[in-house]
Amino acid sequence: MTRSSVRTISLGVIGLILTSICSVEAGSPSRPDLSKVERWGYQLQSADFDQIAKSDLDLMVIDASRDGTATGAYTKEEISRLKIKPDGSRRLAISYFSIGEAEDYRGYWQPEWTQHAPDWLGKENPSWPGNYPVKFWHREWQEIILRQLDKIIEAGFDGIYLDRVDVYWEHRDHPGAADKMIAFVKRLADHARSVNPSFIVIAQNAEALLENDAYADLIDGEGKEDLIFGVDGDGVPNSEEELYWSKKYLRAGYSKGVPVFVIEYLADKQKRKQAAKEIRTLGFLPIFSRRALDVLSQTSP
């Protein structure tokens, strides 16, 4: 998992402000057209709101909390400030949201789970201490996530950036795991859009789900980590098989109108240039950062 795992403005006003990046589908509420996003950012730790506010980013993904805890949650006023670019135009504020792993620093975490885990809680992820894969189809877990989603909506975020959607693959022996993940994402999207019809849903990784037309229609964008480098280690080129597999599904989603946002965790400038060229050739939008996502990502190599 990548951690690296204000609704004070009326919806009518939001619709007017977002005219530059919105499209209206016949017979359906307006949702922002993310294909018109030219610059996006991603930072989950140590976010500097002054730095972000001064940037020209069209879309910014941050955690809903400065330190992951309930007490550290950003206020409506802070999120409202994040939504305005220096020229007065609108920036989309998107909350990072892990739905496939429980995180022991979140407000929902119960200390007793360490010794007496619920049936749906798996073992700690060795790559990300404090993160625990879940059996996401369990009602108790989904109710926890829905309560967290309500807090994100109340804080005024424009949407969510779903991480660990790909946990379904770890449960591929469970009957209908992929369909159950799609149903879970739909439940979250329907819940949020019942409050805010313009609410954005971006899913990270799990690109094979893009073959499902209903899923592709449900989400507003696809985030992808490590498309060109990084599957076998930071800076390591991905295998031809890995590239073929990911590109196949991402192209399928892109052809259905799903914009693709790619983040590469690269420090080497030449590798960044190579990755940027390949990603842009595909029509996708690349950014670069450290895997810890503790600095503001860069849009250029």
Topology:
Blueprint: H1 11-17, E1 22-23, E2 31-32, E3 40-42, H2 49-54, E4 59-62, H3 76-82, E5 92-98, E6 101-103, E7 131-133, H4 139-154, E8 159-163, H5 167-170, H6 177-195, E9 200-204, H7 213-218, E10 221-225, E11 229-230, E12 233-237, H8 240-255, E13 260-264, H9 269-281, E14 285-288
Parallel strand pairs: 3-4, 4-5, 5-8, 8-9, 9-10, 10-13, 13-14
Antiparallel strand pairs: 1-2, 6-7, 11-12
Q: What is the H-and-E element order?
A: HEEEHEHEEEHEHHEHEEEHEHE
Shape: globular
Q: Characterize the main sheet.
A: 8 strands, parallel
Q: What order do the strands of the largest sheet run in, or round the barrel if closed?
A: 3-4-5-8-9-10-13-14
Head-to-tail CA distance between termini: 24 Å
- How many structural domains does the protein architecture include? 1
* Poorly predicted tracts of residues: 1-28
Number of helices: 9
Mean of pLDDT: 92
- The helix fraction, in percent, is 25-40%
Percent of residues in beta strands: 15-25%
**CATH architecture assignment:** Alpha-Beta Barrel
Kindly report the name of the CATH homologous superfamily: Aldolase class I
How many strands in all? 14
Structural class: alpha/beta
Tell me the CATH topology.
TIM Barrel
The radius of gyration is: 18 Å
